[in-house]
Design goal:
Bound molecules: flavin-adenine dinucleotide, nicotinamide-adenine-dinucleotide
Helix content: 25-40%
Distance between the termini: 64 Å
Shape: globular
Strand order of the largest sheet: 1-2-3-4-5
Low-confidence stretches: none
Length: 471
């Protein structure tokens, strides 16, 4: 990077938020630099998040299915063995291919990719400590902060990524632990618990709240999910808070307190996964040099056009408000460039899907029953079980259901909640319907191919607006 040349846009962070903004700005003909210190692009999502975890989830499911779900399909398999090193290599191949692909896309769109750690010198100049040694400065007319998030640590229990791990350690264990305790029954906790449990680890999930899956998950769906995961061998301690931990012994020990009526007890395991949430990451960014303050949760404060209090410095992704999701970061990245270039942009925060990639998958978009009740919004419910869907029956894979919530007066769709095979793909249909303000009758009258799992989606809409045919 040359110190003299001013860029139209400098982006700090090359995660999903940063690299997508960089590509979009390149496409808009802007002069762009993207600073990333990790050594590879793609951020948490591509390197240690979405992508590697889905590789492990997909392949552990395959392994588990070969072990436990073939005989009834008339398939007899011989000696099935897991090669953990190669299992991890498959994950690394997926990650490597995608991060290199992103680097290629930046190049193709004329983005200057600067490998190093960026920090504000003043409101326009960024110092970059280069990964290869030395430093440079880069000047931006506009700057986007996209520095992401990191795992929230558990006080008093230091993460060593071997025995006490965050998700980063949990996707890279070198041997299959006999026992594992997961602190936090949110999405990271349940996805990682599923992976290791399928490979043979005895996993206990300790969750502070009375429900798994985090706050967005519909309570009825969360209960059904817990039941299915329990059947797969996971143990749950709900309404239970981990209060302290000690890793000085052979096993990692945890003291837990039952929040409601239960008793305090000690638990121990070979590996403890800390999955109690993530927090914004702004360390070393030099925000103090530009007088930028954070909110009480460490988030960069922005307005509806992603502007910080210094108008030409904007911020998107995990480091600011909203759900910490890659596709949310991606939407914001496009919108922020549009605001800079054209003065307008758009993200519909009421229409961001969530997917938990357990088996079966759990997916939702819009509002859940608890949220509607809390806001005293009237609603109608329609459900359709996969046990009544011909494709699910053919696949011998009938656990779960599609649930829809709609306005009782106008029939407008308010939320979709799915637990079942392929829920993560099916939710796209719900998201599109919600985005376009569909009524459930609109969905019910849309022809769906037979035999598909998506017919359960149509029939849930029929059940909401009138009556399902097959249930
Ligand atoms: P990040 O991806 O964290 O990227 C920020 C980047 O900025 C990092 O690479 C960092 O090195 C860099 N950086 C920070 N400071 C500086 C600096 N000063 N100078 C230079 N570079 C800097 N979301 C989903 O939607 N679906 C999923 O399936 C999913 N699975 C996940 C699984 C796990 C285990 C985890 C941990 C997260 C998962 N997420 C998932 C969340 C998703 O990863 C994040 O929402 C997403 O990565 C946010 O993108 P971001 O660009 O805002 O931040
Ligand atoms: P989370 O906030 O979803 O869940 C953390 C859970 O830990 C909560 O249910 C909380 O009640 C519980 N908890 C907190 N302190 C506790 C304690 N002392 N004892 C017991 N339980 C405690 O956070 P996460 O699962 O760590 O995920 C972080 C972020 O990453 C989320 O925003 C998530 O959306 C994102 N993510 C998304 C995906 C996906 O989209 N598939 C996958 C992984 C991560």
């Amino acid at each position: 990077a040359s110190a003299s040349e001013e860029k139209d846009l400098v982006i700090i962070g090359g995660g999903v938020a940063g690299y997508v903004a960089a590509i979009k700005a390149g496409q808009e003909g802007m002069k762009v630099a993207c600073i990333e210190k990790r050594g590879t692009l793609g951020g948490t999502c591509l390197n240690v998040g979405c992508i590697p975890s889905k590789s492990l989830l997909n392949n552990s499911h395959l392994y588990h299915q070969i072990l436990h779900d073939t005989k009834n399909r008339g398939i007899e398999v011989g000696d099935v063995k897991l090669n953990l090193a190669n299992f991890m290599k498959a994950k690394d191949t997926a990650v490597g291919g995608l991060t290199k692909g992103v680097e290629f896309l930046l190049k193709r769109n004329g983005v200057e990719y600067i490998k190093g750690a960026g920090s504000f010198i003043n409101e326009n100049d960024i110092k970059v400590e280069l990964n290869d040694g030395g430093e440079t400065t880069v000047r931006g007319k506009n700057i986007v902060i996209a520095t992401g998030s990191e795992a929230t640590p558990f006080p008093g229990l230091e993460i060593d990524e071997k025995r006490v791990v965050s998700s980063t350690g949990a996707i890279a264990l070198e041997k299959i632990p006999e026992t594992m305790i997961v602190i936090g029954g949110g999405i990271i906790g349940l996805e990682m618990a599923s992976v290791w449990s399928r490979l043979g680890t005895k996993v206990t999930v300790v969750e502070f709240l009375g429900q798994i899956g985090g706050p967005g998950m519909d309570a009825e769906i969360a209960k059904a999910t817990q039941k299915l995961l329990k059947k797969q061998g996971l143990d749950f301690k709900l309404n239970t808070k981990v209060v302290s931990g000690d890793k000085s012994g052979e096993k990692v020990k945890l003291e837990v307190d039952a929040a409601k009526g239960g008793k305090a007890e000690s638990l121990d395991a070979d590996v403890v996964l800390v999955a109690i949430g993530r927090r914004p990451y702004t360390q070393g960014l030099g925000l103090e040099n530009i007088g930028m303050e954070l909110d009480e949760r460490g988030r960069v404060i922005i307005d509806s056009e992603y502007r910080t209090k210094i108008p030409h410095i904007r911020c998107v992704g995990d480091v600011t408000f909203g759900p910490m999701l890659a596709h949310k970061a991606e939407e914001e990245a496009v919108a922020v460039v549009e605001y800079i270039k054209k003065g307008y942009g758009h993200v519909n925060y009421g229409c961001i899907p969530s997917v938990m990639y357990t088996y079966p998958e759990v997916a939702w978009v819009g509002q859940n029953e608890q949220e509607l009740k809390n806001q005293k919004i009237p609603y109608r419910v329609g459900t359709f079980p996969f046990s009544a869907n011909s494709r699910a029956k053919t696949n011998l894979d009938t656990d779960g259901m599609v649930k829809m919530l709609a306005d009782p007066e106008t029939d407008r769709l308010l939320g979709v909640h799915i637990i079942g095979p392929n829920a993560g793909e099916m939710i796209a249909e719900g998201t599109l319907a919600l985005e376009y303000g569909a009524s459930t009758e609109d969905i019910a009258r849309t022809c769906h191919a037979h035999p598909t799992l998506a017919e359960a989606f149509k029939e849930a809409a029929m059940a909401t607006s009138a009556q399902a045919i097959h249930f």
